[in-house]
Amino acid sequence: QVQVVESGGGLVQAGGSLRLSCAASGRIFSINSMGWHRQAPGKQRELVATITSGGSTNYADSVKGRFTISRDNAKNTVYLQMNSLKPEDTAVYYCNAKVVHVREYDYWGQGTQVTVSS
To answer: Cα separation of 85 and 36, whole Å?
Structure first.
């Protein structure tokens, strides 16, 4: 089994910063892509950012220039540095890991709440 655990959410004022962390553990041969998605109340889950094992990144237009995704392959950990936060960034943030053991499987964390006050 594989566990994916997020941490680092919280309450911050608009313009502030937060750093999210996500660690995958368990039966892991390797991890291809890792990423962050978010879901605001009444809205569908949306992609925020992804990073491959080689370090290639992809961002939603709404967070480009404000959020930075990074990864420590040795620790199976991905980070999301969020700067210049806006109230519209308020959501539950979910970590995703595409884990390889024989074939690729999708694993999700339980989510961490990020609330940005105006």
So the answer is: 16
Q: What pLDDT, in 10s, does the model give residues 51-84? A: 999 999 999 999 999 999 999 999 999 999 999 9
Assign residue 80 a region: left if phi > 0, alpha if psi is -120 to 50, beta otherwise? Answer: beta
What three-state secondary structure class fits 80?
strand
Q: Which residue has 């040795």 as its token pair?
A: 74
Alpha carbon 62 to chain centroid, angstroms: 15
* pLDDT at residue 46, rounded to an integer: 98
- Which value, to the nearest 10 degrees, does the dihedral of the CA atoms of residues 82, 84, 90, 96 take? -20
E strands present in 57-101: 57-59, 67-72, 77-82, 91-101
Radius of gyration (Cα) for the chain, nearest Å? 14
Secondary structure (DSSP) of 97-108:
EEEEESEEEEEE
